[in-house]
Each structure stands twice: as structure tokens, then as C-alpha cells.
Amino acid sequence: MIIAGFDGTYINSDLEELIINRRVGGLILFERNFENLDQLLRLISELQSLAMSCPASVPLFISVDQEGGRVSRLKAPFSAFPQPSCLG
Fold first, then answer.
1. How far, CA to CA in Å, does 35 sit from each of 23, 42, 43?
2. Each residue's pLDDT tens digit in the chain (88 positions)?
3. Which of 38, 39, 62, 72 is 20 to 30 A from 46 in CA distance terms?
4. What is the DSSP annotation of the chain?
5. pLDDT for the residue 83
6. How would you label 33-53 residue by residue, b for 16+ Cβ within 10 Å and e otherwise?
7. What is the pLDDT of residue 85?
8. What is the rounded distance in angstroms from the CA atom of residue 26 to the CA atom of residue 63?
9. What sign results for the dihedral spanned by CA atoms 29, 20, 56, 23?
10. Is residue 37 within 8 Å of 51, Cβ to Cβ?
11. How far apart, in whole angstroms, are the C-alpha atoms of residue 58 and residue 54?
12. How far, in Å, CA of 50 to CA of 52, rounded?
């Protein structure tokens, strides 16, 4: 499975190409993909709708680079996690 990152906060032609023709299995979200909670929910819904409209009709695996501590790509209103070394 290929999981790809992308630029922007909306679906553009490059992202459509990845989903429809390149058949990526998932996408990873970064701070650059987030304006506010409503926008992010709408984006994820639109991404899943696009993936489900393809012949394979398989939903995307959506991930986020949210390691905790200093690496927290999605800020409030999302949960803050401690850095992994604090978890043991």
C-alpha cells in the first residue's frame, strides 16, 4: 500500500490523479492540510467519496504525522499527546 502526502486544503487535479489513476491506498495529513475542524472533516469526506467512486470502491486509509511532544502537526482543537519517551 502506498500512503502519500499532498499540498493544500482541498482536492486538486494532482490529488485526484493519485487517488483515481495511481490508486494510492491512503493519505497522510500534515498541518498544511488543515485550516479548521469543519474544513478538515469536509476534506476527508470528499476524499473518501472520491475513492469510493473508483472501480475498486475501497476507502482510503487516512493517517496523520502526530508523534506527540514537539511533533504535533494538528493543533487545537485536536488532542495533545506527550512525546513517546514519556509513555515508557
1. 26, 11, 10
2. 999 999 999 999 999 999 999 999 999 999 899 999 999 999 999 999 999 999 999 999 999 887 777 777 777 787 777 777 777 6
3. 72
4. --EE---SSS--HHHHIIIIIS--SEEEE-GGG-S-HHHHHHHHHHHHHHHHTSTT--PPEEEE-EEETTEE-S-TTSPP---GGGT-
5. 78
6. bbeeeeebeebeeebeebbee
7. 78
8. 7
9. negative
10. no
11. 8
12. 5
**Type of residue numbered 20:** I
CA-to-CA dists, residue 15 to 12, 26, 36, 52, angstroms: 5, 11, 20, 15
> Which set of grid coordinates corresponds to residue 26?
491512503
Residue 38, all three cell numbers: 469543519
Whole-angstrom distance, CA of residue 14 vs CA of residue 84: 34
